[in-house]
Amino acid sequence: MSPFCNLPKILYFCVMKKVSFHTLGCKLNFSESSTLARHFADGGYERTSSATESDIIVINTCSVTDHADKKCRNLIRRLHRLNPSALIAVTGCYAQLKSEEIAGIEGVDLVVGNNGKGSLFELADRLASHRGATEIHTCATSELTSFFASFSSGDRTRSFLKVQDGCDYRCSYCTIPLARGISRNISIESLVGEAETIAASGCREIVLTGVNIGDFGRTTGESFIDLLHCLDAVDGIERYRISSIEPNLLSDDVIEFTARSPKFMPHFHIPLQSGCDKILALMRRRYNTSMFRTKIEKVRRHIPDAFIGIDVIVGFPGETDDDFEQTYAFLESLQPSFLHVFPYSERADTDAIHMDGKVSPENKERRAARLGELSRRLHRNFVERFVGQRAVMLVEGIRKGGIMFGYTGNYLRCEMPYEKGLTGKLIEITIKEIDDDGTIVKATR
Ligand code: SF4
User: Fold this and answer.
1) C-alpha–C-alpha distance, residues 361 and 343, integer Å
2) pLDDT of residue 12 exceeding 80
3) Which residue minimizes the CA distance to atom 1 of ligand 1?
4) How much is the pTM?
């Protein structure tokens, strides 16, 4: 065969434009970036992880804290320095909330708010051929009503499926409802279709993501528990995890269903934010410590080995040393498996920013460090309970040194010597011992 037969193909690949994605923040952003990447691939772009060889750089931003905003600005500047000729498109929550601020950063060509993600590819592709002044495409919060259906792909074992967007709650510290809009969803039928597509790709595990997923159904009149029932019936998906659910929406139905279903994993991520009722009221959370305790006890009664991760904010305005000690004692009494600790961060356009009793950065840091230490102890206690027991692990991949790793249903990270052909498979293991940090389980078959 003549070596010239492949010439058109070679030329085609030579002129193929390249795009890279840089995602910050939550799993929702990751699933949306993955969907954006598929839009670019359908439009003839090649995905690259290298910013320097990209024609278009897409940055999907987060704005959950002041620190997140800063990280986004630094990332934009760094990527522009690395590749000054690339078109830079910025989207996500920071882009939605502070579009002008982002447009003012050198190198930014396109700013697209959360409502415009569905048309980001067309906007960026057009601009790549006709570069002009920086374009901004955002809308008012009240107009954030469309649903950008998304799931992540490319990972052989796990996909993040977006089931819900936005939030109708008004927690006094939170800016997410302004960045994401009202609570909304697409139908259970559409989501089942997406789960089937994920299953057909060979992926075995789905993590349900959203802003306030327990509130699923606002748009369609359906309910979260109905969604779980229908997803449970999808062939090919062997595991589901519920990413994070508000305590007041973690219903008895959801707990009991998770306990019964072999597909829904015994893994809960529940935001507490404070173990002091006075602070919970100031935060405008929709529960108190007594209701929270009832939920945890219910989970424990039905699923004794469940992993329970809890979010906590330290240093909220008005949180005294005594209030913090109440939170500490409350968490210690609950004995969760892990704590996600966040120092309170002031956000513009929230009510909390105007509250009295600001906590000094040193105090916030000290409180965060104490809860961090408590979390390490709680996690070790949790992991130690399973030494000597059998478990099922989904093999995710290999890391250096011929070791493969994965997670059990109740989210123990396990490592064992590599065996060929097991990636993406569920295997039975014995938990032998835990590492010095108390975080990783050494396992054998
Ligand atoms: S529930 Fe509260 S903290 Fe969570 S996104 Fe809604 S307003 Fe923000």
Assistant:
1) 9
2) no
3) 169
4) 0.93
User: What residues flank ligand 1, with Cβ below 6 Å?
Assistant: 167, 169, 171, 174, 176-177, 211-212, 246
Q: Which CATH class is domain 3-139?
A: alpha beta
Which of 6-20, 29-43, 335-349, 358-372 has the lowest average pLDDT?
6-20
The residue type found at 413 is R
- Domain boundaries 390-444, corresponding CATH code: 2.40.50.140
What angle (nearest 5°) sits at the alpha carbon of residue 167, between those of residues 162 and 172?
Answer: 135
- Distance from C-alpha of 338 to C-alpha of 331, rounded to nearest angstrom: 10
pLDDT tens-place string over residues 251-269? 999 999 999 999 999 999 9
Those residues with Cβ within 8 angstroms of residue 163's Cβ, 6 or more apart along the chain or in another chain: 185, 191, 208, 209, 210, 213, 216, 227
Question: Do you know the residue count of the chain?
Answer: 445
AA identity, residue 164: Q
Domain locations in the chain? Answer: 3-139, 158-384, 390-444
pLDDT tens readout for residues 77-90:
999 999 999 999 99
- Token pair 């936005």 in the structure block, residue: 166
CA 166, CA 183: separation in Å to the nearest integer? 4
How remote is the CA of residue 189 from the centroid of ligand 1, in Å?
26
Distance from Cα 242 to the centre of ligand 1, integer Å:
16
pLDDT of 14 reads: 55
Query: 104-123: per-residue pLDDT in tens?
Result: 999 999 999 999 999 999 99
Comparing CA positions, the residue from 237, 257, 238, 244 lying closest to residue 191 is 237
Q: Tokens 């909220």 map to which residue? A: 316
Superfamily of domain 158-384: tm_1862 like domain (3.80.30.20)
CA distance linking residue 244 with residue 214, whole number of Å: 9
